[in-house]
Design goal:
With 255 residues, this protein is α/β, with parallel strands linked by helices. It has a single domain, classed as Ribonuclease Z/Hydroxyacylglutathione hydrolase-like (Metallo-beta-lactamase, Chain A). The protein contains 8 helices and 14 strands. The longest helix has 12 residues. The chain is globular.
Length: 255
């Protein structure tokens, strides 16, 4: 699916840095999606392998202005400590990085970074980090993008959000990880693209969506284009026969 970079100044470019699950099924990297509109760059999720994926895709970590995290599982936020580390030691970043997610994001990132690389935060990163909290009742304006969210359900996680990103007349919706929930419909409604997790095939795994559920209910979602990601072994084994479109690491979609 890899396509050319956008030429229209209002085009929105999505690069699929990582489209895998927590287990590396199919050799895929953890969840990470890079959005670019001109000089505006934002990540949807930043799983543990994201820095590797960004390098493979030729994307400079220091150019990313913001990261939005759907929930606090390692395959969705675990790359942030490495992003901070790269900014300090390699890119020698000076511009602000904005990190957006559930209320506990800052604490979780700092605890993880301190555990992996003790003393780094005490020394200082050399660039400002600004934390913002997702709230379904509030829209955020970050890096030229308008962000909103819907609360969803995923295991025992207290704060799990589907994300919706708008810029100019383009809208991308992203389920993060979730079981089927009524809030998926307003999240997806009218979007140009819905990135939907699809870990299971026929029987929904605990706290995840399944291919059969999405196939059956696709029309309810009201999106112009539905693409599947975060696929588990059963779904990956049937890639050649699926009716719904799927994503791969490195795919580029221009809207």
């Amino acid at each position: 699916m890899r396509q050319a970079q956008p030429t229209d100044e209002e085009s929105l470019c999505l690069t699929c840095v990582g489209t895998g699950d927590a287990f590396g099924s199919g050799g895929r990297l953890n969840s990470c999606y890079h959005l670019q509109q001109q000089e505006h760059r934002l990540l949807l999720d930043c799983g543990s392998s994201s820095l590797i994926g960004l390098q493979r895709c030729g994307l400079r970590p220091a150019d990313i202005g913001a990261v939005v995290v759907s929930h606090l599982h390692g395959d969705h936020f675990g790359g942030i400590p490495y992003l901070l580390l790269e900014g300090k030691y390699v890119s020698q970043r000076r511009s602000q990085l904005t990190l957006i997610g559930p209320a506990a994001l800052q604490q979780r990132v700092e605890v993880t970074l301190n555990a992996l690389y003790p003393g780094v935060l005490e020394e200082g990163l050399g660039f400002p980090v600004n934390y913002l909290i997702l709230d379904p009742e509030e829209k955020l304006q970050v890096e030229g993008f308008q962000l909103s969210c819907q609360k969803l359900r995923h295991g025992r996680s207290a704060e799990v959000y589907g994300l919706r990103v708008e810029i100019f007349d383009k809208t991308i919706s992203y389920t993060g990880d979730t079981e089927w929930a009524a809030n998926l419909i307003p999240l997806a409604q009218g979007s140009d693209l819905l990135i939907a997790e699809c870990f299971a095939y026929a029987q929904p795994a605990a706290s995840h969506l399944s291919y059969q559920t999405l196939l059956r209910r696709a029309d309810e979602l009201g999106t112009r284009r539905l693409v599947l990601t975060h696929m588990g072994p059963e779904v990956l084994a049937q890639l050649g026969s699926l009716e719904l479109e799927t994503l791969n690491d490195g795919d580029i979609i221009v809207l």
